Amino acid sequence: MSHTRSIRELASDLAAKKISAVELTEHFLKRIAAHDERLNTLISRNEESARERAAAIDAGDNAGAALAGLPIAHKDIFCTRGVRTSCGSRMLDNFVAPYDATVVERLAGAGTVTLGKTNMDEFAMGSSNETSFYGSVRNPWNTDYVPGGSSGGSAAAVAAGLVPAATGSDTGGSIRQPAALCGVTGIKPTYGRVSRYGMIAFASSLDQGGCFARSAEDCAAVLQAMSGFDARDSTSVEREVPDYSAVLDSQGDDFLEGLKVGLPKEYFAEGLDDASRKVIEAAIAEFEARGAEIVEITLPHTDLAVSTYYVLAPAEASSNLARFDGVRYGYRCENPVDLEDLYTRSRGEGFGREVQRRIMVGAYVLSAGYYDAYYLKAQKTRRLIARDFSDAFENVDLIAAPVTQAPAFKLGEKLDDPVSMYLNDVYTLPASLAGLPGMSVPAGFVDGLPVGLQLLAPWFEESRLLGAAHAYQQSTDWHTKRPAGFE
Amino acid sequence: MAWETVIGLEVHIQLATRSKIFSTAPTAYGAEPNTQASAVDIALPGVLPVINGQVIRMATLFGLAIDADIAPKSVFARKHYFYPDLPKGYQISQFELPIVANGHLDIVLPDGTEKRVGITRAHLEEDAGKSLHEAFDRDTGIDLNRAGTPLVECVSEPDMRSAAEAVAYARKLHALVQYLGICDGNMQEGSFRVDANVSVRPVGSSEFGTRTETKNVNSFRFLEKAIEFEVERQIDVLESGGKIVQETRLYDPDADETRSMRSKEEAHDYRYFPDPDLLPVIIDAAFVEAARADLPELPDAKRERFAAEYGLSREDAAALTSSRALANYFEATVAAVGGETAQHGKPAANWIMGDLSGALNREGLAIVDSPVSAEQLGGLIARVADNTISGKIGKDVFEALFKGEGDSADAIIEAKGLKQITDTGAIEGFVDQVIADNPDQVQQYREGKTKVIGFLVGQVMKASKGKANPKEVNQMLAAKLAE
């Protein structure tokens, strides 16, 4: 059963020719064909190109590359040459990218086979995957529930075993939250670690590519291939990328021994669902049992994160999405009567409601007379939030917290209540604003729905996150659980 | 009522880089539409800008040349508006923290006095594409070749008080950026674009009047005319009891008038904010000093040096340094004459600003396209200086060089047999003949009408076909007539 094996196992099977890349690709394509009508995790399936690519790898392409022959899926926010790149929007329904994002290029260089493009909230704006032009993704653990967002398609596809790993992007929690809600392992690296070139921008100062897989060990292998400086992204950081898998191998089970882990009291205050709290507390007890020192810390500006984020992210989004004007590519309205009409209707018809809402908010907070009160003030509170973390990391090695206040909610439940939807990100937004690396690790279940443990580390300490998660996964089996019907 | 004119200029200086400010696409002018626009320039989803380091260096050179502050930290900001030739829906510019601030340029006014014009700021930005309305039936064509071309926008203080001052400032700036090698200065191709902010106020008033901004002025002559028109228009409006509307106006050179383009009520809220795709530009002292070391000699310094080194008048020195190409031509000419350079400055200046510039104007040529090279002109000046030919014959040799009738002055002198006759025996023959042929004039001279010697010299020159050395002819005639 190839879909239950780890990436390391699959890689060694492929290298030993126990299985061919074509066979592995066919296996996952079959699972997609069998399950994806129900889950809707993929916007585009690339069966033909995937088969050709797998055959080429069997014939020697990318021989010896770390992930040669490994099937993956890319969030539809990453540009893929010759393949529709929709970003979950009607606006780009007809857009076939003429180039590959750096992430796509690097993973291809590592030998991966792309099976398809995963569903997502439109332009990554949403926490439930319900804003996609291509319909909601369903949570494999209970298909009446949301998978989280915005990278919901990637998280659900990995959870259902349709792909061993998938890429995602996290602006305010878009990797960690769906990873938590779908019971998979997800990592958002430090801002600047993974190139943003070719990743369609939502909020440039926050967007960061990352990945989903079944375990920390698998995430390490995929993240390794994605990471590193890219001259095409001015915000990419020129800094050596450690060998993540080697770190896990060398420290393994002992990683948590002596590690000082901070629990921010603000993340365990009112609002956290009791059952979820118990799951998180049990996970922390396991950390302690494995030698971690647990201390309470404070991140005093946590309550400013939601309002800060919902000023800055829409501001940047309103600007980043200005290029979608119906002129050069993408959706154009029928028979525009003049330029004004072309703009108004192309954007009015091409963008969904949530995207329009954020563009309006963003344009408002940047407009003359409001800029200082909103945008500038939010930049200041953002710095306060970041300073909370740098102060905290003076005393602790790692921060552990819940990812969400509660497990997945029902489809449609919060769709007409944007503020309640926004509050869903209350535990993931602060680290995004600070640009910190974060992970979600499966930690248990509440009423059959997964709960994720959030781990945060200092800037560029992805190996610490992966090491801690890996050690935890050595003595727990939450990450190996499979939703019924997708075994 | 007497009115005072107040003018400030905003000049867009296109930087002469090979590639664009944020992409690797080439900047060359005149290519097929949309063949020089990369994924970044057409703003495909997902692309990101990366700053071209040359642009920072050029802006720094410019800042140093206008004696401005170079910002240790400057920030790119997004300026938002929707237009089909603006692919991203925003222009990357600089807003609160420009790279250059607090500079100045000293101009020489037509009456010879100097005036200092303040330069508030100069910031970097990218150009937009072009909308082509003519070539298509009911549609508009978009050419994005120009999108992303690097510009410095240089904003002056409202320090100018007449169209003539504005033109002097614009010309000075135009010469400066070419001196620095950061702009080709081609106004027809839009490499140097001037917008004029013009207002008028009663003489003695300390408050500024409402200003208009006039765009689309693509020559210095049009700048002068546009400002003059605008000043008259504003005075007419005010004197007939009206009010000036703050607006953008377009100069129409065919009608020689400015017309309203858009008023402030329609003006955009550009919603500037720092571009999160680009890091702040950090410039340290070492970078500035390296740029300073690279600065060429600037026009004012060159003018002073020309005046001192070549014994030129201030006016001649200013004229010769009005462009780097002209100044280079002058120095190359002087060098080609050889010997004591100080002695050849004046004749070289006279030749260049006289015959050469006249001939170039006649043919509509720029100095860099001169058919007479500096080496050729220097060779000619040397032959006049060493009396091989007279100045008058020199003009014929110059014309021959200009027409390409020979490779050098020497070759032409040789081929045409123009060598001056300095052999006293030969000259004496001509002189004796002329004295013999013109007894009346000789008589008049001897009776005290010494001016008549000019006529006699002319006769000798004529007889020698212009080749006799006029100085020797003069001396010999004077001696013989005194006998």
From TrEMBL, chain A:
The active site is at K75, S150, S174. InterPro entries: Amidase, Amidase_CS, Amidase_dom, AS_sf, GatA. Pfam families: Amidase. One of its GO terms (cellular component) is glutamyl-tRNA(Gln) amidotransferase complex. GO terms for molecular function: ATP binding; glutaminyl-tRNA synthase (glutamine-hydrolyzing) activity; transferase activity. It is an enzyme of class 6 (ligase). It catalyses: L-glutamyl-tRNA(Gln) + L-glutamine + ATP + H2O = L-glutaminyl-tRNA(Gln) + L-glutamate + ADP + phosphate + H(+). GO terms for biological process: translation. Its EC number is 6.3.5.7. Residues 23-466 form the Amidase domain. SUPFAM superfamilies: Amidase signature (AS) enzymes. Keywords: ATP-binding, Ligase, Nucleotide-binding, Protein biosynthesis. Belongs to the amidase family. GatA subfamily. Allows the formation of correctly charged Gln-tRNA(Gln) through the transamidation of misacylated Glu-tRNA(Gln) in organisms which lack glutaminyl-tRNA synthetase. The reaction takes place in the presence of glutamine and ATP through an activated gamma-phospho-Glu-tRNA(Gln). HAMAP family: GatA. Heterotrimer of A, B and C subunits. This is Glutamyl-tRNA(Gln) amidotransferase subunit A. It comes from Salinisphaera shabanensis E1L3A. The gene is gatA.
TrEMBL record, chain B:
Residues 328-481 form the Asn/Gln amidotransferase domain. It catalyses: L-glutamyl-tRNA(Gln) + L-glutamine + ATP + H2O = L-glutaminyl-tRNA(Gln) + L-glutamate + ADP + phosphate + H(+); L-aspartyl-tRNA(Asn) + L-glutamine + ATP + H2O = L-asparaginyl-tRNA(Asn) + L-glutamate + ADP + phosphate + 2 H(+). The keyword Acetylation does not apply. Keywords: ATP-binding, Ligase, Nucleotide-binding, Protein biosynthesis. One of its GO terms (biological process) is glutaminyl-tRNAGln biosynthesis via transamidation. SMART domains: GatB_Yqey. InterPro entries: Asn/Gln-tRNA_amidoTrfase_suB/E (IPR017959), Asn/Gln-tRNA_Trfase_suB/E_cat (IPR006075), Asn/Gln_amidotransferase (IPR018027), Asn/Gln_tRNA_amidoTrase-B-like (IPR003789), GatB (IPR004413), GatB_C_1 (IPR042114), GatB_Yqey_C_2 (IPR023168), Gln_synth/guanido_kin_cat_dom (IPR014746). Its EC number is 6.3.5.-. It is an enzyme of class 6 (ligase). Gene3D superfamilies: 1.10.10.410, GatB domain, N-terminal subdomain (1.10.150.380). One of its GO terms (molecular function) is asparaginyl-tRNA synthase (glutamine-hydrolyzing) activity. Belongs to the GatB/GatE family. GatB subfamily. Allows the formation of correctly charged Asn-tRNA(Asn) or Gln-tRNA(Gln) through the transamidation of misacylated Asp-tRNA(Asn) or Glu-tRNA(Gln) in organisms which lack either or both of asparaginyl-tRNA or glutaminyl-tRNA synthetases. The reaction takes place in the presence of glutamine and ATP through an activated phospho-Asp-tRNA(Asn) or phospho-Glu-tRNA(Gln). Heterotrimer of A, B and C subunits. PANTHER family: GLUTAMYL-TRNA GLN AMIDOTRANSFERASE SUBUNIT B MITOCHONDRIAL AND PROKARYOTIC PET112-RELATED, GLUTAMYL-TRNA(GLN) AMIDOTRANSFERASE SUBUNIT B, MITOCHONDRIAL. HAMAP family: GatB. This is Aspartyl/glutamyl-tRNA(Asn/Gln) amidotransferase subunit B. It comes from Salinisphaera shabanensis E1L3A.
